[in-house]
User: Which sequence fits this backbone?
């Protein structure tokens, strides 16, 4: 595995790959890799001749007061995970390499970028799209792998690829959960055991929603109020939202075209989860 920290280094490394091997799978990450990332990396490994993973804690997607400085950093173990998973190039650029002063910026769409995750974190998706655009260009990825857990991020990246005619396929990957159903996230590291046991109510509420749907109860308000009952020990429910795959709110869930999205806080840690129905 090559560890590359400069943009020129990455360019040179990709130029050296023979055209036959230049079928590039790319997994962008912010490090602190867990089994969720690993499942993206494994899938990309299976489907690509060259596999590039990036680790870059992107400052522009953190708002003031968010956990940028405390974002977990595990460089040594991240390297090992990538090495063992068969990554060809681990790209770890610096902030100065990735950003310049007064640069051109990309804005998230004014509706889909500013609802749900975009309401409380206005500007967050501008930063995500800005960095993903840069990373897709630098990696020259044929395919880039994103988790369904960040469903809105995934939808916006797909939209950016469409709107800007980028030549890259975005591959959505399933949510990976721990043995009790908690969706894996780097932020889970901040949870105490007690907080974790309360956080399990998030996936329980999504399971309850699935049961209701299977029994024919499709009204969004009914599903949402039942989910709230299940999450009785969660400190704060920021939102539970039932939308279609284009992120339009639904009064009645449409099987095969719906997502139930949840954002909560447990012990000050913000957690999101969702299910696609
Ligand atoms: O999902 C993430 O980890 C980040 O938002 C991403 C896609 C790596 C961009 O910084």
Assistant:
């Amino acid at each position: 595995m090559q560890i590359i920290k400069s943009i020129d280094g990455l360019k040179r490394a990709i130029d050296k790959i023979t055209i036959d091997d230049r079928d590039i799978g790319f997994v962008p990450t912010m490090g602190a890799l867990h089994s969720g990332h690993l499942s993206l990396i494994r899938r990309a490994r299976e489907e690509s001749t060259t596999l590039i993973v990036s680790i870059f804690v992107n400052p522009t997607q953190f708002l003031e007061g968010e956990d940028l400085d405390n974002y977990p950093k595990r460089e040594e173990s991240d390297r090992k995970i990538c090495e063992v998973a068969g990554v060809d190039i681990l790209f770890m650029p610096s902030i100065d390499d990735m950003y310049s002063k007064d640069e051109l910026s990309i804005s998230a769409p004014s509706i889909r970028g500013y609802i749900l995750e975009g309401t409380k974190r206005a500007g967050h998706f501008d930063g995500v799209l800005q960095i993903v655009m840069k990373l897709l260009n630098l990696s020259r990825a044929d395919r880039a792998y994103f988790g369904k857990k960040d469903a809105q991020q995934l939808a916006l990246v797909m939209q950016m690829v469409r709107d800007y005619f980028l030549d890259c396929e975005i591959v959505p990957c399933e949510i990976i959960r721990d043995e009790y159903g908690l969706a894996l996230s780097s932020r889970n590291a901040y949870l105490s055991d007690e907080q974790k046991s309360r956080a399990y109510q998030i996936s329980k509420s999504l399971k309850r929603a699935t049961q209701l749907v299977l029994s024919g109860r499709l009204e969004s308000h009914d599903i949402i109020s039942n989910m709230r009952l299940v999450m009785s020990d969660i400190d704060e429910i920021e939102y539970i939202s039932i939308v279609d795959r284009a992120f339009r709110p639904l009064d009645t869930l449409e099987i095969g075209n719906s997502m139930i999205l949840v954002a909560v806080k447990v012990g000050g840690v913000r957690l999101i989860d969702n299910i696609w129905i």
In short: The radius of gyration is 19 Å. The mean pLDDT is 96.
